[in-house]
């Protein structure tokens, strides 16, 4: 389901929009300073400093002038005046250069009559200004004249970051983010003192940067066929001649403007040209650099690509290296960054194994196998990049073979621990673990979220992440450059989708990157985050309110009842609920402990603060049947969700669906605890075509009175056509019979086996997810 392609997601969007607009208010400040990331030290003073049309900012050089003028320009529309910037040491706000301080560090002193900022470089001055910005009313971000008082409380802040590398990766390949929105994104991340923007510019789904020597890269490679109304994993590959109309690219002049804008906000843009895989957009433009054994049409992929994703750059073709070196020449000339990311991830070697050129290269270079061939490929390009005075970054798959010399590794798989293989060899590394810092994953209770991949990476989960683990060898930590969050855009169809998934979780990444180890405070962070979010709202940024939503857990009790647990990651809200069918209000029953349920019940709950509803309405329709809350015989872990009275949502990872092992039957027996009369046996199953989730090949139901001798009372069997349907939907698989009596009911679901050749996941094992067994 693409974002906002259904009525439900239109409703989600409208609620979020209303909440965002509600957040753009500037009640007179209480003098409580709420800043993220949290400063190293902060002492409050007395009184306030007020900005006015007479306010002047004194700077020491042209570099300082640029950031001061950008700050002063914030006042022009909402305040109706613009503080004057001048050179010297006399002013209401004074920049004082102190070369004894570290880069990025600053001291900020606010007195009623004067503000003084000390720093060694422009970075420190800029970060101090971001604090002033966040202490001002949020309407400072707006475009309308307001009557707010532009004052901030007296205080002294001494501050410096934990990590020098505070990164955010943005995938503009799968969804092209227009220049104007990318600039807005840079401003939002700069407020958080994030100083590296890793731009994923190339992939199977689009080439996003003009390369003048190879114009087809954007004439062809920047455009894909329109499959926007279909979820990313479900999208079928393009056919030859099919119009490609979705996409876009940055001209080199566009990118110069973006780089200049970012540099003024102390953000270094690191370009990624991903090789040898994730290259269908490039090879659709210049197919001569694919392996000659590839005979299929190569197009820009609208989705995962199935077997077409195995089409990668030919490592045996000398022309491939000439081509990529020419591309990198233009990239390195364009980007001032010292770093170039060459990717190196997820390269399937299917065609290399069959390619005579690649096999010849393996023989000539005395390599053991195709994995070592990738090591050769990456090392050769890395050497070229380093010969031009740049440093090379890459994903942690580079550790699968010999690492390119002096390369910097991004640890992403799982918790990023593959990067430690690089650290063991003396390489620097950056932690960006998918299990924590991939913003494409669900950021809150999935019942409320637009469709995406996998499980949850919540705001609190990211905030709690500590990159330096206790079991690390002592020599690893000095090689850790910092941390990074990654925003992959498979499920984004609009810029609003990108901002929704990025914020406010990027604030948690900023806190990890800046705040000293062991000093983070969740409650203080939330206050700062609320203030930051109010600034986003006044900028017109649509951010997620998922942190106010309720996560439910329903478990079975040995008494035959159900226990309902409601949780919210915000500790400063109340959960109010009803069970009479009405919607909860701020005066409804306060949730204080788990609810015990023993009959059909509709629970409705929401979070409240200061008499306002903060999160979305949670509706739990719990329905009872003969199997509800009954015990299993030798149950596998997690099976009790099958009898907890609640059917899962269309998100098969929402913690309400049970799955067994791949390609193995799911079998379980329910003890009804006494003989029961029955005639219908139902198991719910979900189909998520793009993820290879399908119903079983067969469902068999057996009944017994003694758990020894079972009688088969019915079996359903399905054909491939019935099983491998496209779409995302829930079905009830029901076996009906004449009335029968028994105490033990056994269900056996046989796997459907591998997905067929014409599937988007050909030959991959299909998966079964089931929920709610109903016996009537």
Give a written overview of the molecule.
There is one protein chain. The protein is of the alpha/beta class and 776 residues long. The chain has four domains: 38-159, Chitobiase, domain 2 (2-Layer Sandwich), CATH 3.30.379.10; 165-341 and 393-533, TIM Barrel; 549-622, Immunoglobulin-like (Sandwich), CATH 2.60.40; 632-775, Galactose-binding domain-like (Jelly Rolls, Sandwich). It has 18 helices and 36 strands. The strands form eight sheets. The chain has an eight-stranded parallel beta barrel with strand order 8-9-14-15-16-17-18-21, surrounded by five helices. The chain has a seven-stranded mixed sheet with strand order 1-7-5-6-4-2-3, with helices on one face. β5 and β6 (115-119) form a beta hairpin. α1 (7-23) packs across α17 (522-538) and α8 (318-334) runs parallel beside α11 (370-387). The longest helix has 18 residues, at 370-387.
What number is the mean pLDDT? Answer: 95
Tell me the β content. Answer: 25-35%
Question: What is the straight-line distance between the termini?
Answer: 33 Å
User: What is the domain tally?
Assistant: 4
Radius of gyration: 29 Å
């Amino acid at each position: 389901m693409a974002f906002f392609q259904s009525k439900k997601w239109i409703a989600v969007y409208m609620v979020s929009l209303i909440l965002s607009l509600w957040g753009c208010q500037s009640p007179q400040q209480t003098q409580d300073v709420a800043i993220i990331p949290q400063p190293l030290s902060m002492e409050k003073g007395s009184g306030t400093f007020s900005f006015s049309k007479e306010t002047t900012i004194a700077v020491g050089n042209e570099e300082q002038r640029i950031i001061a003028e950008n700050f002063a320009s914030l006042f022009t529309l909402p305040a109706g005046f613009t503080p004057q910037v001048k050179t010297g040491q006399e002013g209401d706000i004074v920049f004082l250069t102190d070369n004894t301080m570290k880069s990025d560090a600053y001291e900020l002193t606010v007195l009623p009559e004067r503000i003084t900022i000390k720093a060694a470089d422009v970075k420190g001055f800029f970060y101090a200004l971001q604090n002033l910005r966040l202490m001002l009313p949020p309407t400072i971000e707006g475009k309308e004249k307001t009557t707010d008082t532009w004052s901030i409380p007296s205080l002294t802040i001494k501050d410096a970051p934990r990590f020098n590398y505070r990164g955010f990766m943005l995938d503009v390949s799968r969804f092209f983010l227009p220049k104007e929105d990318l600039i807005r994104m840079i401003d939002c991340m700069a407020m958080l003192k994030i100083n590296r923007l890793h731009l994923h510019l190339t992939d199977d789904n689009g080439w996003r940067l003009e390369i003048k020597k190879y114009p087809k890269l954007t004439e062809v490679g920047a455009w894909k066929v329109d499959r926007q109304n279909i979820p990313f994993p479900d999208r079928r590959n393009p056919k030859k001649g099919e119009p490609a109309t979705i996409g876009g690219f940055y001209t080199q002049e566009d990118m110069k403007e973006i780089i200049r804008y970012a540099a003024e906000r102390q953000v270094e843009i690191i370009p990624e040209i991903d090789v040898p895989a994730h290259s269908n957009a490039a090879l659709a433009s210049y197919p001569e650099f694919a392996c000659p054994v590839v005979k299929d049409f190569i197009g820009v992929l609208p989705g995962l690509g199935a077997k077409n994703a195995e089409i990668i750059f030919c490592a045996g073709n000398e022309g491939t290296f000439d081509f990529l070196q020419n591309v990198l020449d233009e990239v390195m000339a364009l980007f001032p960054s010292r770093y170039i990311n060459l990717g190196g991830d997820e390269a399937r070697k299917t065609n290399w194994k069959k390619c005579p050129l690649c096999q010849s290269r393996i023989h000539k270079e005395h390599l053991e196998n195709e994995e070592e061939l990738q090591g050769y490929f990456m090392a050769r390009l890395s050497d070229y990049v380093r010969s031009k005075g740049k440093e090379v970054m890459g994903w942690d798959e580079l550790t699968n073979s010999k690492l390119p010399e002096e390369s910097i590794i991004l640890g992403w798989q799982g918790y990023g621990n593959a990067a430690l293989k690089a650290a063991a060899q003396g390489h620097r590394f950056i932690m960006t673990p998918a299990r924590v810092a991939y913003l494409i994953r669900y950021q809150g209770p999935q019942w409320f979220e637009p469709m995406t991949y996998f499980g949850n990476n919540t705001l609190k989960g990211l905030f709690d992440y500590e990159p330096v683990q206790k079991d690390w060898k002592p020599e690893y930590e000095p090689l850790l450059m910092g941390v990074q969050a990654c925003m992959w855009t498979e499920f984004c169809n609009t810029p609003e989708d990108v901002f929704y998934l990025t914020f406010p979780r990027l604030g948690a990444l900023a806190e990890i990157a800046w705040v000293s180890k062991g000093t983070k405070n969740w409650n203080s962070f939330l206050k700062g985050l609320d203030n930051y979010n109010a600034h986003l709202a006044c900028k017109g940024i649509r951010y997620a309110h998922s942190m106010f939503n309720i996560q439910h857990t329903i478990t079975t009790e040995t008494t035959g009842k159900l226990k309902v647990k409601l949780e919210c990651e915000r500790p400063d809200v109340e959960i109010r609920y009803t069970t009479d069918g009405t919607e909860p209000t701020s005066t409804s029953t306060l949730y204080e402990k788990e609810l015990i349920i023993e009959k059909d019940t509709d629970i409705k709950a929401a979070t409240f603060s200061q008499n306002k509803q903060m999160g979305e309405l949670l509706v739990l329709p719990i329905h009872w049947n003969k199997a509800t809350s009954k015990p299993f015989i030798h149950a596998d872990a997690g099976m009790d969700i099958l009898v907890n009275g609640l059917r899962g949502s269309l998100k098969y990872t929402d913690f309400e669906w049970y799955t067994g092992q791949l390609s193995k039957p799911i079998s379980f027996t329910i003890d009804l605890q006494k003989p029961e009369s029955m005639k219908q046996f139902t198991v719910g199953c979900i189909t998520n075509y793009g993820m290879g989730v399908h119903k079983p090949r067969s469902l068999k139901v057996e009944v017994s009175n003694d758990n020894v001798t079972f009688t088969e009372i019915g079996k359903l069997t399905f054909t491939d056509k019935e099983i491998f349907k496209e779409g995302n939907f829930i079905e009830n698989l029901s076996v009906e019979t004449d009335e029968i009596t028994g105490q033990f009911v056994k269900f056996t679901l046989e796997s459907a086996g591998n997905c067929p050749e014409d599937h988007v996941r050909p030959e991959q094992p299909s998966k079964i997810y089931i929920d709610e067994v109903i016996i009537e």
